[in-house]
Amino acid sequence: MKFSVLDLAPVPEGSDAAQAMLNMVDLAQRAENLGYHRYWMAEHHNMAGIASAATSVLIGHVASQTNTIRVGAGGIMLPNHAPLLIAEQFGTLATLHGDRIDLGLGRAPGGDQAVYHALRRTGSDDLPADVHELMSLLGDPQPQAAVRALPGEGTHVPIWILGSSLYGAQLAAHFGLPYAFASHFAPAALEEAAYIYRRHFKPSTKLAEPYFMLAANVFAAESDEEGAYLRTSMQQAFARMQTGTRGKLPRPVKDIDVAIGERMRRSVEPMLRVSATGSPETVRKHLESLIEIHEPDEMILTGQIHDHAARVKSFEIAADAMDQILAAQSSASINPNPRR
Length: 340
Prior knowledge:
The chain is an alpha/beta fold and 340 residues long. It is built from 12 helices and 9 strands.
């Protein structure tokens, strides 16, 4: 099993987007050295706490500052764009950086209704048709086609379907594409979506068998108490989303109930259900449990942590935990009936 990073380039309170981008490159380079397989960024708009709005630009920047780790979008909100434009952007990235670029696709606007209108979305709102068009544009060259992605055609940039509902699962299964579920913030349909994707998957030239990626938050530190403390930034951010008072990523607090109230804390807690929080041992157990329950083919880990050094440390602990889990799985596979 591979494990990867989802980074939203968080902009913490007291900092700015420029520093967030420097932090992003630093984390990507460290993730590469720690054995993470992919480094994905997501398209969000009009959010002071997220610096990854120009996703393809940042993908190119991170790819130029790393050597081996795959870099991509988790994801591009395809209805915001013409498929030709995305094919040209990611075809250009693949031409520059070779087979290191991934293209994950979602269907949300990446913002509220004001963003929806500001983007002047003129797409067909027919995501299956747009996905098919994009696959064709990035596929084998079609010299007789009236419109070609140049660069783009022939690059065969791997396409993923992302989602937090059953729709994405059905779409990924229909096209025979890998599927990533956004369980790090919307885990309600996780179990059913994974089942539908695997049950209805149609083998394709891209993929012979279903490939399911599970997203999980990680707030790892030297102790359970410190991990819970780091987690309060994300709890506050979710609370602000619910009250329409978004801003930069909040500083962590000692008592989350004092900061947002017990009722709000109970309201946002289900959104963080798929998380590993605490000491190295606790985080390893949480991740091990998630893998045992959901049997993903790959884990993608994220964590909105205010302090960059603490965020780096969290990903270091998570990488070590994943290494331990995979080593144990490998040992069990080699020797399934060890002598007692």
